[in-house]
Amino acid sequence: MASLSELLNPTGGMEEHDYAQLPSMIEEEYEEEYDDQPGAMGPDGHGFLKGEVGSSLRIRNLDAWFQALYQYYKEKGFYCIVTSRVVNLLTLGFTIFLSGFILLYLDFAYLSGQCAEDGEECHILRDATFRNPLRHRSFLYNLVVVCYLMLFSLFFLWSLARLAHDFKPLLEMRAFCNRKLQLSDRDIQTITWPEVVARVVHLQATTRLCIVKDLNEHDIVARILRKENYLLGMLNREVIGLKLNIPFFRNRVWLTKAVEWNLDWAIFNGMFDDDFSIRPSFYDVTALRLRMRYLAVVNLVLSPFIAIFLAMYFVMNNAERFYRHPGVVGQREWSTHAWWKLREFNELSHFTEQRLAAAYKGANNYVSQFPSPVVSMVAKFVSYIVGALAAVALALPLLLDDKLLHANVMWDKDILWVTMVSATVLAVSRGMVGEENRVFRPNRYMAEVVRHTHYLPKNWRNLAHKAEVQAEFEDMFAFKAGLFLQEMLSIFAVPFILWYPMCESAPDIVQFVRQFTVHRKGVGHICSLSAFDFRRHGDARYGAPTSARRDARSKQGKMEKSFVSFHAHYPTWEPDVCGREMLTSLAGFKSALYAGVGPEGAGVHNVNESASRFGVASRFGNGTGGAGGGGSKFAAPGSASMFLGDAGGGGGMAGSVARAGDDDGDASRDEREEEENQVLLQQFYEFHSGDGTDEGDDGGEGGGAATWAAGAPRDATPPRSAVKRRPDPPASFEMTESASLTPPSSMPRLSSSLPGTGPGTPPTMNGISGAPTSAPSADTTDSDELDAANFDDPPDLFQLENGTRGF
Length: 807
Prior knowledge:
two-stranded antiparallel sheet; disordered N terminus; two-stranded parallel sheet
């Protein structure tokens, strides 16, 4: 097993992750060359590059600077960014121009009357337009259209000014990437984000970014996602009121792009001061409510104009697509609410997009498991009728005379019009016909989705065939047309959401920020759930070393799942003591499962194919043994959960996840590791949630820990006696008290094989599953851990300017 120092050295493991030579390495080579050259001296009498050692970049706002670096990476470099913004600016200008022409100058009465009768003789620009448009419409109509055009013309000018303002910072970021990170624009288009972060972390050996400390991978990401992590925590704890008490929409959560934009302005805009600490004025509930009501009035005034613009943009963007491919009307996509619900703490947006894109196929397969028999029969009938009419309409001009294409059939419509409408109806109706000979296996496809989304509520487990689960899932994975209608409705619903449910939840929002905020040295105030603070918010059922009271934990183990994903994405990051203890716990659990498989490694891949950080065996449920043909064999004694499966038949959702994963040959190694480790975490939960110590999906409060937490200060560290430990595992998974409390000296990153292990040989760890016996070294103390123990720009309107999502 590799040591902790070897794993976490920024220059170590470069071959394993295909990292390019880091910038300071290149600078060292240049320094040696400059040593031999006379005259290569800086103003301080040292070599020029040597004079840079210990220098610092003068960055006033590190949050904004790291966000700009991430946007520079995500939008693929200088030329791509400039091109994208220019194109988006031209798109915005053309939309304003064309919508103004249609709404003011076009004479619809003449088009549908005289122009339709004249046919080819009608000249639209000459005959069907007004020369004085304001004289032919009502005063109210003209007022709305003119205000709409003026408003979005101002937005166009503001976007143009912002593009000019951002040009110099983009050049500076390009120079930084080229000179300091040794990344050209071509490199930016192909490099991975973790490697960019590794280069920034390594750069701090020669160039100081933060005057307080050298920032690690977690510090950098926490600065980029400071606001988003708070929003994720509030949504996870269901703090923000987003439901309206109106008929037909009582249980609907209104989280659309319009609501998301207003959440940023109402809650997070101005939340932090120049030192990245929360302003004392933020805790004023009255002021927070006043901001929400002010925004409600602004949205009420602007809602008609925003709706007009969105409708025009949607029609222009999708009309040609719907005409050529009518079947796209029935396509689905993840809703904005699902996007935020499935996003994890410290997960950058492109990682979330990758996960949801990977889950798209499984989600489509799942919803297609439930075709309505009645709808299918009606759709078949409609398809037959419309198809027959279209065949006759096409056959007559082909067999007789092509002039019949313009012969009237019904309602003064010719055959050409009937054919076009019939083709559209035919495509839609055929899309509603259920697929024949489809095998009904909803749990299999649900497992494939969970493999990427890491989201499995308690009422979904082994119940993927239920109508309630189907309805909840389809609300998250909805039709595109339905999502657009919901977005349009939300524009008019936002004022009422801000005025009523969000104002009512203002005290809860302030209380959440008070309770879930920690200060990290060199970072400032961040959400403690995103800090992976297992002392205050750990859930032992998901592998955390301690278990906090119920109202302090994240729901469904979101913090623990986020920790596992973050560790998979950033292999050079060093967790704190509690994080290492959690990894050791999961490694021991996996080793115990692996040890119970039996001889010849039945149900497990060869150990040399392992890619998981938590154990020597990696790919679940694809072995040579078992009647199920490769099902999961990881059933713990007496368990029968959907993720642990059953030992005899290879069933359960873990086996389904593994079989689904075997078909994904395009996934990178780190992506496969993340998926497998998330399955392991769910297995851990399934095994430990049945001990009776915690009730409900979020668990109970639990004796000593709850008693201590009730009267303890918010930023205090719980004593060992007050911490509730994990339930006792079976005999095959024994951990002594010292093993569970002593942090390991080396992180259990088990993607490399243990010496002396094989497919049928469980690893031996001196009698302790997954926990080495060596004492922690003195140099593994994390400064952030000691600190924790003592406990802007507005978003672009609907992503038209730079195409980004979120704040």
